[in-house]
Every structure is written in C-alpha cells, then in structure tokens.
Predict the 3D structure of the following.
Amino acid sequence: MTSRTIRLRRLRRATSALSGRKRGAQPKVVALGGGMGLSASLTALRRITGDLTAVVTVADDGGSSGRLREELGVLPPGDLRKALAALCGDDDWGQTWAQVIQHRFQSKGDLHEHAVGNLLIVALWEQLGDHVQALDLVGKLLGAQGRVLPMSAVPLELQALVRGHDPERPDEVDTVRGQATVALTPGEVQSVHVVPADPPAVPEAVAAVLDADWVVLGPGSWFSSVIPHLLVPDLLDALIETKARKVLSLNLAPQPGETDGFSPQRHLEVLGRHAPKLALDVVLADEAAAPDRESLADAAERLGAAVELAPVASPDGVPVHDPELLAAAYDRIFRMHGRIGPWR
C-alpha cells in the first residue's frame, strides 16, 4: 500500500467523521478550474445549491498575480479572487463587494493594474499564515455563497511541450514555461506538467472531493486551468476514488493559441491522456458547439461518460456561458444522472 493511498484513506475517514451531515435539500458540489471558466460554473451552480466548494488552480504567473507571486513568494491570488467574486450574491451587498475585489488600480506607479482583492487576500495570508482560513474569512466578508480553496499549498509552474511554438520552426517541439505563455502559444500543445512534479494538495480540497455528491470540471482554458488539477497526485487520486458523480463541461469554442483547432472530442482525448484512470459520468456540451455528435459520444464513452447536449451559450452570440442556462443544464444533469434520493 502506497503512502498516497494511506493518506487518502485517512482523509476519507476524517471526512466521514467530521461531516456528520444530514443530506437534505441540496447536493454537495465541488467545482474545479480557474479563471473565467470556473467563474461561469460557480455563477451557475450557486443558483441551484448552497453547498458549493471551488477548488482553484494556482499556476498563474501573469498580471497582478504574477507580480505578487514573484515579489512575495505567495500563491497567485487572481483565480481565487475571481472564484470568490463569482460566489457573491445578486443583492446589493454581494454585487458591491464583487465589484470592489475585482477593481484594478490605474496609475503610473507600482499599484498599476493590481486588483484590490488580490491585495486583500495576500494581506490576510501574511496576517494569518493560513491559506484556507484567510480565504474563508474573505468569503465571510463578501457573503460568498460557497467556499474557495486552492488546489495546492505551493505555487506551481506550468510547463508544456509545444510543437511549433516558434513559427519559424513549425515542426520542432519546445518546452514552454509559465501559464501565461502556454495560454497564448501559437503552437500546438502536446502535453502539460507542473513543477514541482509532486505538489502537495490542500487537504481540505481533497476532503471536499471525497465528500461530494457531484464534481464539476471545466469549462475553462484546457491546458492551463482544467488539466492542472489532474497533475496534483493526491487530488487526482481523490477524483478517481470519490463516490461522487463527475460532469465535465466543455468549452463553447476552441481557445486561440492553447486549443486552436481542437474539436470537442479532441478536448476529451487530451484529458484522457493526462489522466487515463479517471472516469467521468457526464460530458456537457452546448448543442451548437458539437457538430460531430457521434464522434463526441464515442470519445465520451471511452471516459465512461454519457453526453448531454443543452443550450448553455449566451443568446447574444458572444461565446460565453449564460448563467441561467448553464444552471438549468446542471440541475437537469443532477436530477437525471445523480443519486437523487439524498437531496430531492
């Protein structure tokens, strides 16, 4: 028995002993991702459950997050901030605080483009010395309708093998370092990994996955926000071992650079190569974004999943998820594919 298996078993026992919860009115949902994709999921999910936990990637090295990470050696706070903003309610209090923490300073000095929420989160990390306690405190201040956790306790560097990263050498494969660079590469991403290679997962994130009714993965930047969760060994093991049902939400369109030219089914194939032991239950795709439904169904079946098609894109034609439509799709999936009895 490996030490990782022993740790997971201990976490499972601790989770069972500590939760002692009576399942009732709503499903316990964990959403994994980063950036705007995770924000879209959280904005939708908070409409259908109050028992919601976001597990957020910590590999960002650009913008305000990158500067704070480099200067102070902290976890990049940006994606954590966006998740907290997405969990703010629709009342005046929630929307005011969502706007405040998302506000960026505009100046000619050192504060230029720093987000207020990033500074608040980092200040609390320094004051409390505890990532989870600080994020819980920010969530309480905002009235966030859920909990936000980092996926790892250390900042990660994303590295990718990219064919044609240098347009003048289109057939050569280079190692590209940094999430911001990977996200914008003009080449074809072959695979990604993180440094350090065996990063420690945040125990509360692992426990949340093991205790969930549903785990939601995606949408989001595939190589820089979605797949990194599968590169944290303890978190991946928890995703494999959990009794929760798992739904993967596909993007509405390929991302320029990172997944340029990818079909929906190719997204699934790439994910399967990075985590071959991970099985899914449902793949959610927008009706208009899945032209080859037979190939998509075949790719999903190889992951153990059924495909659910639903109109989830914004009606105005902009390639973003509509919160109400996405919430309706998740709710229908939870009803049709979930273990309905405990909460319905």
